[in-house]
TrEMBL record:
This is Ribosome-releasing factor 2, mitochondrial. It holds the Pfam family EFG_C. It comes from Engystomops pustulosus. GO terms for biological process: mitochondrial translation; ribosome disassembly. Residues 257-373 form the Translation elongation factor EFG/EF2 domain. GO terms for cellular component: mitochondrion. One of its GO terms (molecular function) is GTPase activity.
Length: 469
């Protein structure tokens, strides 16, 4: 297009037009727009050329970590795929230094060294083997077994340590603590999963194959957790389908459940004693502790001032027992949130094992939680719906029935955009319902906003539904 325009008008050389577009793109004054159709293979090549011509290379950026690594390798693993013959294949973007085949690299996030056997240049479904690659390029690596999406790859552990020292010196000059953190922990931000379900293999013989498939999928998708937790109904359905297609496993999924949280409204105090004789040894522990609602200025775990110094040798076991309790709340068995603990008394008979101390602390905390006033927290979603004005009233009426809180209604060209805050429990199957209400013309996006307390009526209804009251 630019060549034709330049030749017809005979005014501006195409190189000057491209240089001008690049300048305004780098300053973010304008955004180049290209038309085409991937389905019909039209406009794809100009789009790829435009990426090279107009978008910034690492030399055009002034990120601090590039100066800290200097000429050493620094690359970001942004995608992991699995090949039946080659195993995990990692796509990396190189920001500084040279990446070479048959070399050892250091994964900063996993704190481990791995050996990269091959380096490939991807061209659609074809890969060309190369010996090295320079900054600004994307490569496909073979041999990195532990690397997951979002990990930072550098040349060696010594290189990461040297960069950290330069970051410390820079921090002392600029007083910027965040810069050092960004250096070593570069990656992608993974939101908390909001749905979960159980997944079972078709037989005990296939248990190992299922575990291997899930490990591989977790490297590709860090938002996937076990038991199978994901970002939405479609996310889990896609994972289930991939396990069937790519790994040949006909697995069974349990019912989809929402990832609630639990907290307490007021504090309570409890004590407990655990006395067991195992073999020839008597194990005895007495614990007294208090649970309370947690605010920003209160530490998660506090120790009473009158505790004897001997308790210090049991602190790890005490905190293991407390942290174990945070995983299972007293109402639904969901994780606890915003609950603080004060340890008032710990009395341990000499020779008692650390495992017994942890068990007693966990049992005492469970007792205190059951005595307190409990509250279920439900995930609230930020919902953005784009539709024609004709469907606005029906969409708003539907949101009000879903306990939605509409924050704003905006105009976007000829469309209306509704910004709302809606409980996740009310959005099961929402894509189908929205298509029905708007005759298939509306689109929406969802993002986890926060966790909010359920009102008493909804909480009692949920507990009755689960058969807990």
């Amino acid at each position: 297009m630019l060549e034709e325009y330049s030749e017809d008008c005979n005014l501006i050389p195409v190189e000057k037009l491209q240089a001008a577009i690049r300048r305004i793109t780098l300053t973010r004054s304008a955004v180049p727009v290209l038309c085409g159709s991937a389905l019909k293979n039209k406009g794809v090549q100009p789009l790829l050329d435009a990426i090279t011509l107009y978008l910034p290379s690492p030399d055009d950026c002034t990120h601090d970590f590039m100066s800290w690594y200097k000429d050493d390798l620094c690359a970001l693993a942004f995608k992991v795929v699995h090949d039946r013959q080659r195993g995990p294949m990692v796509f990396v973007r190189i920001y500084s230094g040279m990446m070479k085949a048959q070399s050892a690299v250091y994964n900063v996030n996993k704190n481990c060294t791995e050996r990269m056997s091959r380096l490939l240049l991807p061209f659609a479904d074809q890969q060309v083997e190369i010996s090295s690659l320079s900054p600004g390029n994307i490569a496909l690596t073979v041999g990195l077994k532990q690397t997951a999406t979002g990990d930072t790859i550098v040349s060696s552990k010594a290189s990461a340590a040297a960069a950290a020292r330069r970051a410390v010196r820079s921090e002392e000059k600029t007083k910027d603590r965040k810069s050092q953190d960004n250096l070593v922990l570069a990656g992608v931000e993974i939101p908390e999963p909001v749905f979960f379900c159980t997944i079972e293999p078709p037989s005990v013989a296939k248990q190992f194959d299922l575990e291997n498939a899930l490990r591989c999928l977790q490297l590709e998708d860090p938002s996937l957790k076990l038991i199978l937790c994901g970002m939405g109904e479609l996310h889990i359905e896609i994972i289930h389908d991939r396990i069937r297609r790519e790994y040949g496993l006909e697995t069974y999924l349990g019912p989809l459940q929402i990832a609630y949280r639990e907290t307490i409204v007021c504090g309570s105090r409890a004590s407990d004693t655990l006395d067991r004789t195992m073999g020839d040894t008597r194990h005895q522990v007495t614990v007294e502790l208090e649970v309370r609602p947690l605010s920003e200025d209160i530490p998660l775990i506090e120790y009473s001032a009158n505790l004897p110094s001997s308790v210090n040798s049991y602190k790890e076991a005490i905190e293991n027992g407390i942290h174990g309790c945070y995983l299972t709340g007293p109402l639904l068995g969901s994780p606890l949130q915003d609950v603080g603990v004060i340890v008032h008394e710990v009395s341990v008979l000499p020779g008692t094992s650390m495992t017994v101390v942890s068990a007693c602390v966990s049992r005492c905390m469970t007792k205190a939680l059951k005595m307190s006033e409990k509250q279920i927290l439900e995930p609230m979603m930020s919902l953005e719906i784009t539709m024609g004005e004709d469907h606005l009233s029906r969409v708003l009426a539907d949101l009000s029935q879903r306990r939605g809180n509409v924050g704003a209604i905006q105009d976007r060209l000829d469309s209306k955009v509704v910004l709302a805050h809606v409980p996740l429990a009310e959005l099961m199957g929402y894509s189908t319902d929205l298509r029905t209400v708007t005759s298939g013309t509306a689109t929406f996006t969802l993002e986890l906003s926060n966790y909010e307390a359920m009102n008493p009526q909804e909480q009692n209804s949920l507990l009755r539904k689960k058969g807990l009251v």
